[in-house]
Amino acid sequence: MKKCKVMHLNKPLIKTLFIFLFAFCGWGITPTLQAQQENINDLLENFIYYTELGEYEEALPFAQKVYIQATATQRHHQMYYVMVSILAKAYKNVDQLDSAKKYMHKSQRLAKKQFGEYSTQNGETLNLVGSIHQDLLQLDSAEMAYTHAISVLKLAPNSADELISAYNNLADLNQDRGQLNDAMTNYDKALEFCQLQFGKTHNYYPVILSNLATLYGDIGQTQRALVLLDEAINIYQNKGDTNTFSFAQKLSNRSIYNFKLAFYSATQTDVSRALRLLKIPTPSQQLLKATLLNTKSQVLETQGNLTEAATVLQQSMNLVAQIKGTTHPDYLEKANNMGLLLLEMGQTEQAEKLLQQSRNISEERYGADSQLYALFTRSLASVLAASNQPEKAAALKIVANKNLQKDLQEILQFGTEAEKKKFIYDTYHILEVNQSFALQYPEFSAELILSNANLLLSLNGTVLASASHVLQDVRAMQSTEAKNLLETYERIYVEWNQAKESDLNWKKQDSLRVALTKAERTIARMYAQNDGDKFLFATADQIRKKLAKDETAIIYSDFRFHNGQKWTDSTIYAAYVFSAKQKTPTFLYVCSEADLRHVQRQTKPDHLYAYRGAGAVETIENSALNQFYALLISPIEESLANTKKLHFVPSGLLHQIPFAALYQQQNEELCHQYQLYQYISLRSLVQNQSAKNIDYVLLVGGVEFGLYSPQSTTNNAVFGWDYLPGTKKEIDEIANSLQGKNLTVNVVEGYSATEEKLNPFMENCDVFHIATHGFFFPEKRLKPNATKGYSIFQTAEDPLLRNGILLSKANQQWHKTADAIDQTDGILTAAEISMKDLRNTQLVTLSACQTGLGDIDQSEGVYGLQRAFKMAGANYIMASLWQVPDQETAEFMQLFYQHLFQQKNIRQAFIATQRSMQKTYPEEPLKWAAFILTQ
């Protein structure tokens, strides 16, 4: 759905022309000249009349005649530049943009010559020059013109209107170019200056609010966009200014965001109200009507009124065709919507014809690399699949996948994290359709399966890997500029998260978001300028070549199932199975999410222990582990013949399942059948990472958390953390076992285990082992008056603030409601960890409860401590899925380090430890299977 953009804010044309008419009447004194002036005035009045009606073709000849007469008689008068500007605007209105640019540049030169560099007239014409360059898609030239206009208008007298307009136009350009932080900054400047000079009742203020709302809509903050639009509409209503075209525009914008939030009744109300205001058939009003009809059609489609929806959508298309033609992007986007609507109505032949024709137009006019061409390629593939042409559909889906991977490479190198997430979310939505197709038509999908696998490999953990790659590269520069930039980024990140959790002031949050995004972009530019390598994706072919004959790799994928015409209510799990002998991976259905949840409800291992140090109160039913095996392993068992080493990437709910403990009725647990290698992404498998010597081990345990006072409450909030005596014993025994190994071993315990003391040690160690309390809280949406008794770490919006580990003096700070991140509070959140430099760290061992948990993202995996340590640069992370009692945790860890310094291999040491613990506790998998090792 295309968002409704507001037109450029320039001084109103009618006002400019009447100023010109008034000045023009006093130009000459002879009767002949007087007659010429009266003739020009008549021509101008006709130009104004037709322009107000939107009949720009009729208006253009009058502007041309006025220009000719004024050039012949008054070309040296001060106001002559206005006449040239009027002709430029007339050409702009009829899309003759090259002519418009020619005369607008001439007008700007005249204004500068007549009134000086720092004059309002020069600034105004520069602003108009920028708008024409923007329409011509000459975006660099447009930016230069707007920036120059702002520098001029800042120093020009009586230029407030023009300066506000220039800031708004520059923000609009920034938004079109994807420079969202710059756009937000310039919209804010326009709003602040407008309020300072004129107050919120000025006509410009609600228009800029509406523009800012479209920006928030672009970044997915639909609720925030609605807040701004409500404010803009209230301003109009308070002024009684509710019968204007501008008011109708704001209603149209609000209807779009109400529709996105599924507020269909409010959407219909705004659409109907706006349509009643559009009484004059000018192009602008007709185009807005087309947008409103498009929104109305979408509501009707959602309600199941497909025939009426198609009728309304056709009306919208006809209006756009009359004004912009059938090759304009606005028309083509609506044609795509119509094609998909016809598909939903079962009219596949008509849908195919429309989409094929539109695809050909988009290729001819905009190129095969354009977003429009890619859009029609995907839509046409859906129609071909539904019309029993799966082979043709598969071929088009492969083309679309390649285009997506190319676009992904660019955004990963230069985009912000928010932009990367949005692109990957949209891409995963497309991949869901393609994977559903591959399951339905396996006989036509061999090449598509390979293409889907490559796209999935490109998406899995990509935001994490890209951010880590860029940050580590910039850290490695070791320049003062890089150091200062990273410190600035960390400081702003801290302040922004504090504001999100403790400050209801939107303006402060927005300002910090802008600053954070700017810092992200600066880091990306520094990375690129330092000849940073392009982000490297893993491919199916690379994985195949990396695998030995006795190795198999699996990527699990969870996705909503699309039946070829519409989305179903089912989420399913499938698996890509890679082997050395197959060029194309095998793609197999595994199970449904409903199946998994049914088994999960039988046991909740994360509820078995209140916290580390408690005794076991129940044991998991072995039948659940057997059922998980039947769901997740049995469907792919044939592909695992002769496999000894199994590499795998979980997905969705599978991140919470202990694969090592799964077993078939007569067989051993999975950890005995295979050497299990778990990854965040198979990218780690194909990257050559040379093993480094382990020389420095940092051990943290026996932490004194300080005093706390339990409070009465009706909820289940945690109010304090008890000392864990087993953790001190654990690190002491590990330290003793490492004596004589030619290692530097640093033990930090008790009240010394503070954030301040650990920070420098963490960034220099090879192994960081911490035995303490860990915490993870699922997302909890509470009303403002319902948060009493909860720590901010339980209710934070950011999942990296709801994960962490506890250090000295944490109890004194646990209940704070502000300063969610603090370098000295004893609560080391995942957000803080992600900012550290752990490039030298080979292994992080989180000997604490629930350190492997976190919010689950479809392509990014778990947003928790594992992600944070990987982002900081650590190679391997050992964490736990649930609380394990002290005794068994200490036993597991001692065994692990014995194996590690015997075998000198982190992965092999972990496998050996799992197998040993399983033999010790054959009927109690919860005492050993919680621990996972990821790379």
What does this structure look like?
With about 950 residues, this protein is of the alpha/beta class. About 60% of the residues lie in helices and about 10% in strands. It has 37 helices and 16 strands. It has a 6-stranded mixed beta sheet, with helices on both faces. Strands 3-2-1-4-5 form a 5-stranded mixed beta sheet. Strand 4, helix 28 and strand 5 form a beta-alpha-beta unit. Helix 3 packs antiparallel against helix 4. The longest helix is centred in the middle third of the chain and has 25 residues. The chain is globular.
Q: Compute the number of helices.
A: 37
Per the principal axes of the C-alpha atoms, what is the gross shape?
A: globular
What characterizes the major β-sheet?
6 strands, mixed
% residues in beta strands: 5-15%
User: What proportion of the residues is helical, as a percent range?
Assistant: 55-70%
